[in-house]
Amino acid sequence: MITFEGVTKRYPGGTVALDDVSLECPTGRITVFVGTSGGGKTTALRTINRMVEPTSGRVLIDGEDVREKRPAELRRGIGYVIQHAGLFPHRTIEDNIATVPYLLGWNKKKARERALELMERVGLDRTMAKRYPFQLSGGQQQRVGVARALAADPPVMLMDEPFSAVDPVVRAELQDEFLRLQDELHKTIVFVTHDIDEAIKLGDKIAVFQTGGKLVQVDSPEDLLAHPADDFVAGFIGQNRGIRTLSFATTSGLRLSDDAVRPGSAAAADAAGLDWVLVVDDERRPLGWTRPAGVEGTLAEARLDPVGATFRVGADSVRVALDAAVLSPAGLAVGVDGDGAVVGTAAGTDLLAVPTHGSSGPEDDG
Ligand SMILES: Nc1ncnc2c1ncn2[C@@H]1O[C@H](COP(=O)(O)OP(=O)(O)OP(=O)(O)O)[C@@H](O)[C@H]1O
């Protein structure tokens, strides 16, 4: 656990970058620092590896004051990832990743093996090992940055806007990959971002900083969305708070209807009263949507519209299900089980009736 005890940082010009910040970042979890520009997030992060020394207060890692270790020694146990990756331009990818192992005196072969293993872990092809950073895309460079931070298997990782410099699609991929990696590695991670969506997606715990280095709220993503501490936090979370809350509502108790689900062998005439029918195969896997009116013979002979997005019942959130409903030609979300077989369908209005965490229903404050 990383503990901030009354940490204040005042710069010579008088700027207060951190104002009496007390906070705990639990072991094996992701704590996200989010907030306005200049709110002190980066400063707070850097007090952990002593790139910034507090004016008063202290920072502890597992109960030990970080000032008790020499900075170089301290930093070997702390991975650090920054925006634009910050790779050494004249070193190959594998040498970049092996930076800390080399510093620790590992032999070349072992360090190289570690670098190649990590490349795979972060989703990079081993054939890129001999390339230089400029020969990689921005997203690939960020992956190298993450691999480099993980090289000596540090228990703590500090990540300062690591995914901010890439486009939204690559960014989402990096976030997903990062969460998968964390599922295996269980590092104690402190992650800085100015993007509330990223904070909600990645954080086990979110700390919101306001200008002047004030920590205004520390909560789980669910509680932050449901109960923002004040107008500043509510404003920062933004207008889509109600919709975001649905990300934490489970689809496991959802009542799904079988009415519109038919096998291809069924006669279209039997479904003539329905506006839309979801045609399924013998294993109940969805084949597509059709309007049965006017179709002769079986539903298998009808022209099908694509199923579009589905949601995994119990595994996906109501937000995912709602998205599936909106994108479906029938306005119905298709719920499937782990094998991809259709459990049933739900209309958008059914989804909005699902109770969400910490409130009686989805809010709309936009
Ligand atoms: N070395 C420094 N000397 C003087 N002032 C500094 C220094 N570093 C940061 N500051 C000031 O401290 C405040 C907090 O900066 P910090 O970089 O921690 O904010 P941040 O929340 O990370 O912002 P951003 O999201 O823009 O990166 C800012 O007002 C900044 O100008």
Word description of this protein:
Strand 12 (277-280) and strand 13 (286-290) form a beta hairpin. Helix content is 30%, strand content 23%. It starts with a strand and ends in a 14-residue tail after the last helix. The protein is globular and about 80 Å long. The protein has two domains: 2-240, P-loop containing nucleotide triphosphate hydrolases (Rossmann fold); 261-352, CBS-domain (Roll), CATH 3.10.580. The strands form four sheets. A six-stranded mixed sheet has the order 6-7-8-3-9-10, sandwiched between helices. Strands 2-1-4-5 form a four-stranded antiparallel sheet, covered by helices on one side. It has a three-stranded mixed sheet with strand order 11-12-13, with no helix packed on it. The chain is α/β, with parallel strands linked by helices and 366 residues long. The structure holds adenosine-5'-triphosphate. Adenosine-5'-triphosphate is lined by residues 11, 13, 15, 17, 35, 37-43, 194, 209.
The H/E string reads EEEHEEHEHHHHEHEHEEHHHEEEEHEEH
pLDDT < 50 stretches: 357-366
Beta strand count? 16
CATH superfamily of the largest domain: P-loop containing nucleotide triphosphate hydrolases
Mean pLDDT: 89
Strand content: 15-25%
> What is the alpha-carbon Rg in Å?
25 Å
Tell me the count of domains: 2
The outline comes out as globular
Q: Judging by the overall fold, what is the CATH architecture of the largest domain?
A: 3-Layer(aba) Sandwich
Record the strand order, biggest sheet: 6-7-8-3-9-10
CATH topology of the largest domain: Rossmann fold
Tell me which ligands are bound. Answer: adenosine-5'-triphosphate
Largest sheet: 6 strands, mixed
Distance between the termini: 37 Å
The number of helical elements comes to 13
Overall CATH class of the largest domain = Alpha Beta
